[in-house]
Amino acid sequence: MAATLQRRPPGAITSSIPQAKTLNAEAVTIIAIGFLKRIGNKGDLKPKRVSLEEGIYTVEVEMKKLAAIVQIDSETHEIKEYEIQPKGEEAPFISVSPKILLIIFGISAAVYMSLHFAFKIFGL
Questions:
Q1: With b meaning 16 or more CB within 10 Å and e meaning fewer, what string describes 3-42?
Q2: What would the pLDDT profile of 69-113 be if each residue is shown by its tens digit?
């Protein structure tokens, strides 16, 4: 009754961690957003576009006043390059909100009525 134990050589230990799979758009987006949060962008991050060209994923992410472009290698899963820049949206020359229009209309109506009654009083 001899009990034999099988020993595995140290290099043959199997890991419960699955082997790295190939990346897809969702996984790359998660990597890019996680990276942007780690470097200090805590606001609302909205992924806009993901593309794959020559083994490099390019993820475009919009923030409140900035836009980020993150490039991730599809084989090594590491971030190769990133760029954060102001958004390229053009603001209108004069922004007019409904609240401002209402205030301007109220002021002009008050001025018109006061001038109208002033001219009636003076007989002009």
A1: eeeeeeeeeeeeeeeeeeeebeeeebbebbbebbeeeebe
A2: 999 998 888 999 999 998 866 555 667 788 999 999 999 999 999
